[in-house]
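Quick look at the format.
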Amino acid sequence: MDASGLGGSLARMYIEQIALIVADYDEGIRFFVDALGFELVEDSPALTSRSGRPKRWVVVRPPGSRTSLLLAKAEGERESDAVGDQFAGRVGLFLRVEDFQASYDRMRDAGVEFVGEPREEPYGTVAVFLDVAGNRWDLLGPRRTPADPSQPIRFTVSASVWALEHVNVAGAVVARVA
């Protein structure tokens, strides 16, 4: 049996694209390519939309990523109402980066709007930002390396103070003797 419990009957899968509704293709391209540093994978004419208007097939993705975003221009009132609110005000997309501070600084310099200051979480440094449409994203730094389970005790000395700390796998102190 494999991890799915289906005995290996499922072929390897991945999410190839996620559609993100935008008000304008070119604004979306500028934001994702220029401000976030994504690659423009494709920008080509496509068959007409449901209403018969010409549309474009616009695909962007982070460098080296397998999963991409299909920028879909809003058509009609319902789609226009969803621009910037695809996740009902929640963070709906998560961008993991190798160098959080460099990415954060570059994005701020490029005009990306952050909703708060970066904070430390067990899953890494995180800051919420808004995309070109107003959807909320998490910018995530590298995952913290879990403490080595064979080394759960940390001894620290600072000036004349010493402490013995027991840390959990996320690196959080769960007991301290000073």
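Next, a different chain entirely:
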Amino acid sequence: KSPEAVEPLIAKLNDLAPEVVIAAATALGQIQAQKAVQPLTSKLYHFDKEIRQAAAKALGEIIPDRALFYAHLANLNDPDQAVRQASAKALGQIAPSKASLYFNIARLFDSDRAVRQAAAETLGQIKSLEAVQPLIAKLSDPDQPVRQAIVKALGKIKPENAAMLKDFEQDFKGRHILDLLNDKKIEAKLSTRSLHRIECSIRRLVWYPLKVEIPVATFFLPQDSSFCSMVSTKATSIVLDKDGWLDVPIAVVCVNIPRYMPWRMETFKILPSSSYSNVDDLVKLLQSLKADYSFPVQQAAVWIITHDARYKTLGALVETTYYRSGTSSSSESRREICEHEAAQAMQICDMAGIDITGQAIWEDRETILQGLQDGELKTWLKSKK
């Protein structure tokens, strides 16, 4: 029952792993941590039934004479309508003056959109603080009219919520990661030691759900200017509807040829696509990329646009194999963008509506053709005028 254990356990209630949340709730109940009553109460409306039950059991151990009350609260968003109705009725008998409150909290989780909307509107009129947590739990409702009713209800219950939720609908539908960072609604840590992927650790700083959009051609600038910048090759959407950090990989390629590639962990900041002068061609190119194109092909296509790269310059992308024998070591490097990859990259640019004959690599057409095996790609490059 160490007091020092309470705060770390409360923090674990926001863990992304259900088993961690359940274990933390169980431990808080066992040590009867009065400080945990509010955070545990917020879990009574969690979408995971086992987490709801663990929170209710813990609350019952902390406040034994309200054990039945908390057990019924945890059932107000049960998938089974009969269970919801029975618990709402039981709560109304425990606290007759609040019968309408519990009845409408249960209706928030009904399958009928009109019923959920009416319940939110009624809860806004009742103005009970007990309705705040279930209303927050339903902010991610799939129907916009319901979400709007919930936002209005929260504003009526606590006027300060109205200001906090003024951008909710836009945030919920999705906003650019840079805008959300600037508004301090999210926090993100961006790092990589890879050429083709940035690891994005991200969390929300608001208590409502939101969607983060990372569009194609989002630029990532390294903290160390000697390393190359990165650009995203496909759009990524991240839904943040839980507390805690979420790790999301972002597909990228390098923008700069002359700079070092990230061989060690490097951190990045985000720049809008408009920060690049030739962004229109780059966006067209990246939007035309298919998932089955290899990384060397994608990288070559981007360098052809960003640096007007020739075939020799594309040799900057190498794969190095290291050998060790006893106390001595050696390495062997080979270029990853060979004739086939270069020709594919040229074809991608052409399909994106970019005049490949006007790019510097067109001067290396004969060299690239000599290294190609007979097939559709070679036929295309031969016939291209």
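The two ends are 79 Å apart (CA to CA).

See the schema section for token definitions.
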